[in-house]
Structures are given as C-alpha cells and as structure tokens.
Design brief:
Layout lengths: L3 H11 L16 H10 L18 E3 L9 H5 L5 E4 L4 E5 L8 H5 L15 E3 L16 E2 L10 H7 L1
Antiparallel strand pairs: 1-4, 2-3, 3-5
C-alpha cells in the first residue's frame, strides 16, 4: 500500500535539484588556482545565485571613516576585531567573523568635508568567495594599509 512518504519521494525525484551549479563550466582541479586566475582576470565566473538584497558578505572596512570609537570591538560576539592602538584603527579577521553585522549596525561613521551625513566605516559587501588555506592571508585580514599582519600590537604597546 502506497504511503505518504512514497508519494513525497516520487515527487522529489521528478523535480529539478535545489543545488547550484559550480560558477564555471568545468570543475577545476584546484579551486585555489581558479580563484587566482579570476583575480588575474584570466577566467570569469558567474555568481551561482543572484546575491539577494541585504546579503551579509565579507565586511568592507574604510579606515578613513573610522573614528576609533571601538564600538565594533565591544559588540562583536566572535571576537573578530582587534584594536591597533598606534593607528587608532581596527584589524578585522574574516576567518573568525560570524557575519552577524552587529559591528555595521553600531558603527557611527565619519562625515568628511562636503558631505551632509556621516558614512559608516564598516559595511557588508556582496563578496562571498572567501575560501583560503591560510586564515591570516591578505584576503582574510582587513586592516589599514599602514598596519602589518603578524605584528603583535599588544607586545608593542606593553613595551612603551
């Protein structure tokens, strides 16, 4: 006797899959080399799905707009933000980030000359290709250009 589960299974077999195809025609042997070719402009990829409005992708940080209030560090549940005291700016570790956007919500921003309203230093981008072998790579650590990855800011501030 056919059951409800059997009808459900037959109906699912006849539908198209919900998965998205890979963003290039043929699957590459190395995804890392594909990403390097995309950055170099040798290969173009299609977004697997249109990025919806309000998508919470990789955080974009504009150090010029940062006023050094440290509110983003206070509200970050994943402890993905680090204070750089010498520059009065932050360093953001994308590998630790939960993409909750609390830091974006709390950022007061800064009004530059000629602007009517302040613009936030932090915003959510539509970038979603974040795979990398090194969690401290240039792609996964967002910081001001003056800062260097790998320097321990705590030690340098303790020595002063």
């Amino acid at each position: 006797m056919p059951t409800k589960a059997m009808f459900l299974m037959i109906r699912q077999l006849l539908r198209r899959p919900f998965t998205n195809p890979f963003p290039v025609k043929y699957a590459p042997k190395s995804v890392t080399s594909l990403i390097e070719k995309v950055k170099a402009g040798q290969v173009s990829i299609k977004d697997p799905v249109p990025v919806p409005e309000g998508f919470r992708g990789k955080i974009h940080y504009d150090p010029e707009r940062c006023i050094g209030c440290r509110l983003c560090i206070t509200v970050c549940p994943a402890n993905a933000m680090e204070w750089i005291p010498e520059l009065r700016k932050i360093r953001h570790y994308v590998a630790r980030c939960m993409f909750c956007a609390l830091c974006v919500d709390v950022c007061p921003g800064k009004k530059l000359p000629g602007e009517d309203t302040p613009v936030k230093a932090l915003s959510m981008s539509k970038e979603f290709l974040l795979a990398d072998y090194d969690k401290y790579s240039e792609n996964l650590v967002i910081e001001p250009p003056q800062a260097k990855v790998g320097t321990d800011t705590q030690e340098s501030s303790d020595q002063k």
